Amino acid sequence: MPATDTSVRASIVVDAPIERAFAVFTDGIETWWPPEHHILQADLAGMTFEPRAGGQVYDRGVDGSECRWARVLAYEPPDRVVFSWDINTQWEVETDRDKTSEVEVRFVSEGTDRTRVELEHRKLDRHGDGWEQVRGAVGSDDGWAVGLRRFAAVARAT
Amino acid sequence: MGELARELPVSRPAVSQHLKVLKDAGLVIDRRAGSRRIYQLDPEGVGALRAYLDRFWSQALTAFKAAVEQGDEEVS
Fold it and tell me: Is A14 near chain B, with CB under 8 Å?
């Protein structure tokens, strides 16, 4: 991928009908979202994905605190959902919308019980500079160390 | 690059090839110094963010697949 690419893409095929895939991704977000990936001070109690364009995605802490880190930009069940990523380089909620990226998720039926999910996280350049923090996170043991071990393993197989 | 190749249990061409991948991904930049080529993590750009999110979404979608396929108790 060229260095100028400002998107990250990922996709997966799930053994489930498209309606269920969409429902689990949105309404059921707290059943699969990696629980350590939240920016609340308190431990995570749950997550809410408001099912409408103009809604929000927010994390709820065990102490009652909330973190509203995404705006639902498009909500088109069961085909498509788009939400913003309002988290800045300091791991805080970004209030300047010009400095937020967005995530588009498309659901494509490949049969009655099979759905392809295509995700694109784009406009990453809008977060601007200051990603030393992220580089720090990537540099932690589960980041670059894992990456480099994998690098060594892949390179060895070459 | 020679220093990297010495540290890793792989051949010099293999290291060169993989550094090219990291460069194309915007994670490292390189410059020539005489006959040597120096690689460093790219301090600018979105490479670090992309690397982080690439890992994050891959992990998240794997967990999502497990949740979707585990039955209908949580979400109908």
Answer: yes
Q: What residues of chain A lie within 8 A of the CB of B52, using their CB?
A: 134, 137-138, 143
The interface predicted TM-score (ipTM) is: 0.76
Q: How far apart are CA A122 and CA B43, in angstroms?
A: 20
Element (H, E) at A105: strand A101-109
Q: Do B46 and A12 touch (CB under 8 A)?
A: no
Closest CA to A56 of A46, A45, A44, A47: A47
Q: How far is CA A113 from the centre of its chain?
A: 24
Q: What is the DSSP letter of A16?
A: S
CA B8 – CA B29 distance, rounded (Å): 20
Contacts of B44 in chain A (CB under 8 A): 129
Query: pLDDT tens for residues B3-18?
Result: 777 777 778 888 888 8
- pLDDT of A131: 57
Q: Which amino acid is it at A19?
A: E
Evaluate if pTM is beyond 0.90. Answer: no
